[in-house]
Amino acid sequence: MSAERSAHQRIHREVGEPCLSAKYENPCRGTPLVVFISCDKLFFSTTNMHLTYYDLTIPLLAKNLKNVQSVLAKGWEAAQASQMSETAFLDQRLAEDMFPLIKQIQMLTDTAKATPARLTGREMITLEDTETTVGELNQRIDTVLAHLETYSPEDFSESAERKIELKFLEGQFQYGKDYLMDFALPNFFFHCTVAYAIIRVQGVQIGKIDYIGSLSLHPLT
Amino acid sequence: MSAERSAHQRIHREVGEPCLSAKYENPCRGTPLVVFISCDKLFFSTTNMHLTYYDLTIPLLAKNLKNVQSVLAKGWEAAQASQMSETAFLDQRLAEDMFPLIKQIQMLTDTAKATPARLTGREMITLEDTETTVGELNQRIDTVLAHLETYSPEDFSESAERKIELKFLEGQFQYGKDYLMDFALPNFFFHCTVAYAIIRVQGVQIGKIDYIGSLSLHPLT
């Protein structure tokens, strides 16, 4: 009798009737074995069927913050080549009543610092909106990148059910899962895209790959 | 002895030494009980500590496609009020060498149809890029929305490890997890944001909330 089958039978006896609907799915194939027992089913699976809240915040935010730094550097290089002042470069915007580049980068770093803090209940770092140069904006992004590295996957164990209060949602809250998907991720990518577009529309030679950044690739065999 | 503790001890005996490092995390609190057994740890947890590939594709894509429909409707209403032709409206772009609104919507629907198809190995629906009107673009979005509804969470059980081949990655592939986070999600939100921005820069009275859409809220008690 396989170890899996044996474990199944023991657990079956332990939890009783609800496991009569037990089934095997995704039998272990070299990846760590996990046995799930829920109220109405039991099955073997692998640990990587799911994404964690850590996966969807820390590495995702960090990678895209670095992409923003790269886009910002290319934009600033082109601006300098065309004798544009640093102030004028950072004050560019898509429309008169939209926020300028400097504010877009302040906002996307705000989202990047706030998302894991809210999902974990940890205190948020303070970022004063006092930047006036490209160097200071890069420093702000570096500060957030360093802060993101202080989180561990275990910090997010309660994220799904955490009640997230946002100041514009008076008297209401979002559960962590909804906050991440309804608001945090779309909002973060919004400001990354607008920052990219502000630079792109000036004719700077950047393309989608600068926004997307590097891809984790493997050779086809 | 609690049922949890009893189950733990049985499983401990079953799987032997690796479980000496067993620990309890997130003891069951009214949500379905799940027992995890991995190579080096065992703990009780709840089923919603993680996000599924289904969560991160089907409802997320559907919600944001509907947001795009709403933004498109407001933009077209304003364009009609200012006597702009439908062709001119759909040909607007952020810069001469960027894609127009019509193409942005074709591309974001392409991403929305391709992401779950690639993650599940299901065949992709065909969308001919023949739209020339707002009505036809809305129909295209509706087609993708209806297609998204045909997926079930079980379809994504192999997504993490699925080898995703993209035509611009000759001889290489991405694992499903990397594809989703490196490429699919950022790319989808890129085109949603650019479509929004194209309409926004024309002075149409839309704001971030039109891009974000409705939030799942609960009253604070």
Helices and strands, with pairings:
The structure is a homodimer of 221-residue chains.
Chain A lengths: L2 H13 L17 E5 L4 E5 L3 E3 L5 H24 L4 H5 L10 H20 L13 H15 L14 E2 L7 E4 H25 L7 H5 L5 E2 L2
Antiparallel strand pairs in A: 1-2, 4-5
Write up this protein.
With 221 residues, the first copy, chain A, is mainly alpha-helical. Chain A folds into two domains: 3-49, no CATH class; 58-212, dinb family like domain (Four Helix Bundle (Hemerythrin (Met), subunit A)). In chain A, 48% of the residues lie in helices and 10% in strands. Chain A contains seven helices and six strands. Chain A has a two-stranded antiparallel sheet. The two termini of chain A are 35 Å apart. Mean pLDDT of chain A is 84; it is low at 15-47. The interface between A and B is large, with 78 and 78 residues.
